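Entry 12.
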Amino acid sequence: MTTQTETSPPIVAPAQRSLADLAVTLSEWLPRQMPGASDFHISDIQYPRGAGLSHETILFDARWCRDGASESRGMVVRIKPGANKSVYLDDMFIEQYRLMKAARESGKVRVAEVFWLEEDPSLLGAPFFVMERLSGRVPVSFPPYTKAGWFFEATPAQRRIAWEDGIRQLASIQLIGVENVPFLDFGGGKLSPFQQELDRYRRLLGRITAPGPLPFHEAAFEELVRTAPANPPPGIVWGDARIGNMMFNDDYCVIAVMDWEQPSLGGALHDLGWWLYNEDVMTRSKGVERLDGMGSPDEAKALWSEVSGIPVTDFEWYESFAAFKGETLRIHMIDGGWFEASPGNDYQDSFGARVLADRLGLAPPKPRPSR
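Predicted 3D structure (C-alpha cells):
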C-alpha cells in the first residue's frame, strides 16, 4: 500500500533485498497467476517508509497486456519473515492471508484485496502473498505521529474524523464472526481461545534468553492468570490494533486496516486494550499530550461497544494484559537485536513495566544493565 507523507521516514523493514532482482522474479511469476495476460512489466518498486517492521513488504506497479489492451494495477508483495527476523513467536503467515480474505469478504472491515498466496519458498526465499496497493496516508511510528507528520499537522476536526472512523473499524472486526474464521483456533482442544492468547505471550517470555531471569515479568504473568476474567466475551483478535496500522484517505477516513500478523480467537476486548495502551505509548511515554481531536479512553470504549454490540467489562484486566504483551514484545526485540537496551528502556525498566507494576500492584522492577 502506498504511504504518502510530507516527510521521508526511514525504511524499517526487517530485511532488504535487490529490488531489481525481485522485479524480474515477479514479472515471471505473475503470468502464472493471470491466465490470458502477457508482457508483464514491473515499475515503481520500493519499500514503504516509517512502517513495516515485522514483515518485508514491498510496493510495486504492474502493467500487462490482455486481449490486445494494456492493463495496470498497483500491488504489494508481503514476504514471510525468517525465524531470526520475526518480531512474533508464532508463525501465522497463512492465517494472516486467510483472515484478510475473510474480513474482505464479510464486507464489515475495510481491508486491501488479497490476490494470490505462494507457499513455495524457492522463489523469494520464503512464502509470500500479493495484494492490492492502495493510495493513502498512515500515522507512522518513525517518527511518531504524535510529534511530526501529516496527522500531527492536521486540524483537531480532521483528527476527530480519523479517530472515530478508526474506532468504528476496530469494533467492526467483531462483526466478521468467529464462526467464519475457525482456522484461528489452534489450541487443539487443550486450551480455550482465551487461554491460547495468554499462552502465546507466556511462551514468548520463556523464549527470551539474553538477560537471564525476569522475575518481575514472570510475577506479572502469574497475577494476570490469577485475575483473568471468568467469562471473557469471544471474538477475533486483530493482533496489532492501533491507528498506526490503518491507512486514511484525504478525507481522513479509513481505507484499509493493515498488518494482521498475530490474529487469534482470544476474545473481543484484547484489541481495544491494545489500542488504548498504544495511545499511551505514543503520548505519555514520549512526554507529549493526547492530540486535540482524539477521543478519551472512555469515549473510545463507548463508541467501540456501540458498534460491536459487546459490553466493555473487566477492562482493567485487558489494559494490564496489553501492557504485559507490549513489555514481552519489547524485551524480545531487545533480545533479538532490533534495538539496544538503554537507561529507562532496558530489560526490566521501561514505561510499560512501570505501567504494569502500577496496575497490578507489584513492586516496580529494578533497572538491569544492557548486555
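Annotation: Residues 2-135 form a domain with the Phosphorylase Kinase; domain 1 fold (CATH 3.30.200.20). The first strand starts at residue 2 and ends at 3.
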